[in-house]
Write a structure and sequence with these properties.
By secondary structure, the chain is an all-alpha fold. The chain contains eleven helices and no strands.
Length: 251
């Protein structure tokens, strides 16, 4: 399926904005996936192409934040949760092609509301690092693959889920939690897009244009994370979660 140049450029611009928002708060797919569907792509092609461009956005954000040493963990320490996220996403991507995802359409709005309310009514959350409530090894083996599975199976809000659990359960400050969320989201995206590519579901020209936009947006967003910190990230997470919640309620 070939898209007109004007439509491709529009999708590239939407991907740029989505990459910026996704780096700070997650939820960039709220913009890109509906845009791809409105452009006339089938649901499976839209999902696959969206994963392709999103992978490059999360990869750029991860690279930039890694260069600025914004990860609490060392590269060796990130390897285990990275692999758990990748594995969970792979399972989710396989199952979404075999089962009905309608049950998640009921659960996801509830979870998004909880995330928004947590950051809205806990103004001190993520301001400073605190004692973790969940050990790193247990967190890596349980919540990380579950969120990775969700990303492969459904997707929207994955970055916000990783950020919330990093702050609430691992005691991370919000900037650190956001940085680590990008690395784990990058892992889940890699697994998902690989399986979609193998299945021949990706539209490469459309994906390539949006990849450029995503990478520029993620580059800008990573600088905004470092300069704005928690005062910028927290309201964006609330806004993005409420926007996704509204979308689910109206669909």
């Amino acid at each position: 399926m070939e898209l007109e140049l004007s439509l491709l450029l529009m999708l590239g611009g939407i991907a740029l904005l989505a990459g910026f928002i996704d780096t700070l708060a997650g939820g960039g797919g709220l913009l890109t996936l509906p845009a791809l569907l409105l452009a006339g792509l089938s649901p499976v092609n839209a999902l696959a192409t969206n994963k392709l461009q999103g992978t490059f956005g999360s990869g750029m954000a991860t690279f930039m934040l890694l260069r600025r040493r914004r990860f609490a963990e060392t590269l060796a320490g990130l390897r285990r949760p990275f692999l758990w996220s990748l594995g969970g996403s792979a399972v989710g991507t396989v199952l979404v092609q075999l089962t009905d995802s309608q049950a998640l359409r009921v659960l996801v709005p509830v979870v998004l509301a909880v995330i928004a309310l947590y950051f809205l009514f806990s103004p001190g959350a993520g301001g400073v690092q605190r004692a973790p409530r969940l050990a790193a090894s247990l967190y890596d083996r349980t919540l990380v693959p579950v969120i990775g599975f969700y990303d492969g199976f459904f997707g929207p809000g994955t970055g916000s889920f990783f950020s919330l659990t990093g702050v609430a359960l691992r005691g991370q400050d919000l900037v650190t939690a956001t940085a680590q969320a990008k690395a784990l989201n990058f892992a889940s995206n890699i697994a998902s897009v690989t399986l979609f590519v193998v299945g021949g579901k990706v539209l490469w020209v459309t994906g390539a244009v949006m990849m450029v936009g995503q990478m520029v947006g993620a580059w800008l967003g990573s600088h905004a994370v470092l300069r704005g910190g928690a005062p910028l990230i927290r309201p964006l997470i609330v806004i993005v979660c409420l926007a996704m919640l509204l979308r689910y309620l109206l669909v």
